[in-house]
């Protein structure tokens, strides 16, 4: 299946969707410069920039992922909600309505539940999509921090669920079979890149690590490699990018733990 990504930062949500659905990322839309560099390096797909450009393009894809900006809804911000200029959900709804993907996967902060979320569900219902949602914490899959996020899976309302869509088949889950991918050396490969399997660090059943934990501090300052590790990413996924230290922290802070997203898809789809 083909996957289009909207505003998912360094691609954590996309890694999870690729692995869970057996999909392949074919394009993205993100105006953040650091995210664009990460997508180019790790996925090598076209970046269409401003998501408002998407409705004017001739694209074919089965899955849409969107990690639209959390600032309008975050407890850490001013919570302007629908009046925030960074509220881009209406454009995403327009894209869903035009292209009608088989599966829509959304991610945002937990504060979205109490601000702006009912409008998202109403728009999806108006377009003709049923939705399931759930809050999943990074700690639910063994990460040593909470980082609660809401995940949404939507699909056309003429089917009973994601796996009732024509041509769908359940993905093999190594952890679900009682075998930790850390031991099986299972690897995920797509379009000529090799990415360690998502279970290499945090999985629903295993929180052991293949490599030593990086030092939390270097010269008395927070080590971005430590933050990258805490986010469940392969070593160097963000810290080897040609961006500044502050940009690394911003990209990591706005991202999602891939294993957390994968677990959310298990809970919502299985």
List keywords for this structure.
single chain; 270 residues; alpha/beta; six-stranded mixed sheet; globular
Commentary on this structure:
By secondary structure, this protein is α/β, with parallel strands linked by helices. Helices cover 27% and strands 19% of the residues. The chain is built from eight helices and ten strands. The protein has helices at 12-21, 33-42, 89-99, 117-127, 181-184, 224-230, 245-253, 258-269, and strands at residues 2-6, 24-29, 63-66, 103-109, 129-136, 149-156, 187-190, 193-196, 217-218, 221-222. Strands 2-1-3-4-6-5 form a six-stranded mixed beta sheet, sandwiched between helices. A hairpin with a 2-residue loop joins β7 (187-190) and β8. It is globular, with a radius of gyration of 18 Å. Residues 172-209 have low confidence and may be disordered.
Got a strand count?
Answer: 10
Sheet having the most strands: 6 strands, mixed
Helix/strand/pairing category: alpha/beta
Multimeric status of the protein = single chain
Mean pLDDT, rounded to whole units? 82
Distinct helical segment count: 8
Break the fold down into its secondary structure elements and pairings:
Layout lengths: L1 E5 L5 H10 L2 E6 L3 H10 L20 E4 L22 H11 L3 E7 L7 H11 L1 E8 L12 E8 L24 H4 L2 E4 L2 E4 L20 E2 L2 E2 L1 H7 L14 H9 L4 H12 L1
Parallel strand pairs: 1-2, 1-3, 3-4
Antiparallel strand pairs: 4-6, 5-6, 7-8, 9-10
Helix pairs in contact: 1-8, 3-4
């Amino acid at each position: 299946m083909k996957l289009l990504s909207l505003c998912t930062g360094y691609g954590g949500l996309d890694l999870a969707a690729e692995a869970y659905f057996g999909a392949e990322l074919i394009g993205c839309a993100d105006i953040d410069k650091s995210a664009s560099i990460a997508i180019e390096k790790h996925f090598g797909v076209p970046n269409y920039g401003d998501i408002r450009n998407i409705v004017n393009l001739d694209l074919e894809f089965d899955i849409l992922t969107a990690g639209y900006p959390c600032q309008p809804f975050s407890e850490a911000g001013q919570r302007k909600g629908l009046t925030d200029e960074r509220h881009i959900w209406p454009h995403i709804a327009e894209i869903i309505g035009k292209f009608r993907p088989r599966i829509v996967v959304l991610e945002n902060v937990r504060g979205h539940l109490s601000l702006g979320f009912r409008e998202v569900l109403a728009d999806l219902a108006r377009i003709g999509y049923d939705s399931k949602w759930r809050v999943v914490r990074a700690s639910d899959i063994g990460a040593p921090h909470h980082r609660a996020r809401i995940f949404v899976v939507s699909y056309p309302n003429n089917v009973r669920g994601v796996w009732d869509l024509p041509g769908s088949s359940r993905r093999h889950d190594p952890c679900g079979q009682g075998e930790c991918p850390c031991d099986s050396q299972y690897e995920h490969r797509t379009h000529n890149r090799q990415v360690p399997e998502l279970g290499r660090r945090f999985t629903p059943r295993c929180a052991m690590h293949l490599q030593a934990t990086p030092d939390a501090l270097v010269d008395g300052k927070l080590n971005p490699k430590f933050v990258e590790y805490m986010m469940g990413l392969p070593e160097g996924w963000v810290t080897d990018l040609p961006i500044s230290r502050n940009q690394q922290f911003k990209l990591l802070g706005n991202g999602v733990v891939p294993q957390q997203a994968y677990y959310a898809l298990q809970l919502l789809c299985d």
